[in-house]
Design brief:
Blueprint lengths: L2 E6 L3 H16 L3 E6 L3 H11 L5 E6 L11 E2 L3 E2 H4 L4 E5 L17 E5 L2 H10 L4 E5 L12 E3 L8 E3 L13 E6 L9 H4 L4 H16 L5 H13 L4 H9 L2 H20 L5 E4 L14 E4 L4 H9 L1 E6 L10 H8 L3 E4 L3 H6 L6 E3 L8 H10 L1 H18 L2 H22 L1
Parallel strand pairs: 1-2, 1-3, 3-6, 6-7, 7-8, 11-12, 11-14, 12-13, 14-15, 15-16
Antiparallel strand pairs: 4-5, 9-10
Helix pairs in contact: 1-15, 6-7, 6-9
């Protein structure tokens, strides 16, 4: 494969991931085209000129470009990807139960990629009809290496803008603790808990209570136990639909703990700067310690993280994967204080850029944070211990190389088969 199609103009974070990998693929000698979802008509014309059958691959996140968008799909004809036999590699950044309805009517050459090893196991079990290509966790970026895309809407050209300054400059640590990411109050889920009747509401609430009481367990693990206890054995097709209808439980649980982590700190007198939507709806005893900032871009989040002493993370229920917040924090000189996952603990030992806390003992989080804030030298030691590990294994550059190995391997296998 010599040509790569990526998507921009949709979810900003996903475009940011794509651009970082696309930049590396360009350095490797591949031709890269960015399909702009905000300008589908013009992009569609350029896309057809860019594609060369047998030489082109699509790499996307969360099914962007695979949802029958007007620029890539025509009724009665189908996807442009099928028309030109383009392999489609989709990196799903949430659990497979979110995507049950999207996993219908996909291009013929569809490859699914998971960012968590338990997501991978779930997908293989519940969706055996699809090809699962592998586990590719999220990654981090350094501010001084961050590149941006100029989509060239005025002159019709595309170009990547590189950072003007690549030498790291000292950053003033103006924030003590930062939390980046949106917050959804658990009250948002109440209509979904009660959407059928009281009996079902009690069933759903029982699953939620069980997961909160045992935060090391996954949503699907607990939900499947409750389903079997209440309904007996079911086919995997019935269960995957049932779990898809429970995605509000995942939303509830991850935001419950996001709320608790911030709340326990601010109520202990520790100032937390939160960046994202919804935090104004969090109720706590000392709201004066929670400093609200609006939702912003990935680049601005990196700048804020670099200006922080501690970056707080609550895993979005990835129990065997990682989150880019952790790697971004370390790469930009900030200690990541995070709950654990199996994969994350394998990759980063305690003190290698991270300090771990236990959701089941969330009341101990303020003590950990206070100790870190009190010792500047210790924080610097922790960051220095983590940077080499993350630079070597957990950047979007490394993910670009891994993914290209798979793509070239699959292309070679297809040629031999033909």
């Amino acid at each position: 494969m010599k040509r790569i199609v990526l998507l921009v103009g949709g979810v900003e974070t996903l475009a940011y991931f794509s651009i970082q990998m696309g930049n590396e693929w360009k350095r490797m000698g591949y031709k890269v085209f960015y399909f702009d979802l905000e300008d589908e008509r013009n992009s569609a014309k350029k896309l057809r000129r860019f594609i060369k059958p047998g030489e082109t691959v699509l790499v996307t996140f969360n099914f962007e470009g695979l949802e029958k968008e007007a620029g890539v799909y025509r009724e009665g004809i189908g996807y442009v990807w099928d028309e030109y036999a383009v392999p489609c590699y989709n990196i799903a950044v949430d659990h497979p139960y979110y995507y049950h309805e999207r996993l219908a009517d996909l291009p013929e050459k569809y490859y699914h990629i998971s960012i968590d090893r338990l997501h991978e196991a779930y997908f293989k079990h519940f969706y055996p009809e699809f090809t699962h290509r592998g586990f590719l966790p999220l990654a981090g970026s350094k501010l001084e290496e961050l590149c941006k895309l100029n989509t060239g809407k005025e002159d019709g050209k595309q170009s990547v803008e590189y950072p003007a300054e690549r030498i790291r400059k000292p950053v003033e640590k103006k924030y003590n603790v930062i939390m980046t990411g949106n917050f959804t109050p658990t009250s948002f889920c109440e209509p979904y808990i009660h959407w059928i009747n009281d009996e079902y509401a009690a069933f759903y609430q029982g699953i939620i209570d069980d997961i909160i009481a045992h935060p090391h367990r996954t949503v699907e693990e607990v939900a499947l136990e409750h389903c079997e206890r209440e309904m007996g054995e079911n086919t995997y097709k019935d269960l995957r639909m049932a779990l898809h209808r429970m995605i509000f439980i995942d939303i509830y649980v991850r935001n419950y703990w996001r709320r608790e982590a911030v709340k326990v700190l601010v109520d202990a007198g520790i100032q937390v700067d939160v960046f994202g939507k919804g935090w104004d709806e969090l109720t706590c005893g000392h709201p004066e310690n929670m400093i609200l900032h609006p939702q912003t871009t990935s680049e601005e989040c990196l700048k804020a993280i670099a200006a922080s002493k501690i970056s707080l993370n609550v895993m979005p229920w990835f129990k065997d994967g990682a989150h880019d917040r952790v790697f971004n924090s370390i790469l930009n000189g900030t200690v990541s204080v995070t709950d654990t996952s199996k994969y994350l603990c394998e990759e980063l030992k305690e003190g290698q850029g991270v300090c771990y806390y236990d959701l089941a003992q969330i009341d101990k989080l303020p003590e950990l944070v206070r100790k870190l804030l009190a010792y500047d030298v210790r924080r610097e030691e922790i960051v220095r211990a983590g940077i080499p590990v993350v630079e070597e294994k957990h950047t979007w550059i490394r993910r670009a190389h891994q993914l290209m190995e798979w793509i070239e391997e699959d292309a070679g296998a297809a040629e031999r088969k033909d």
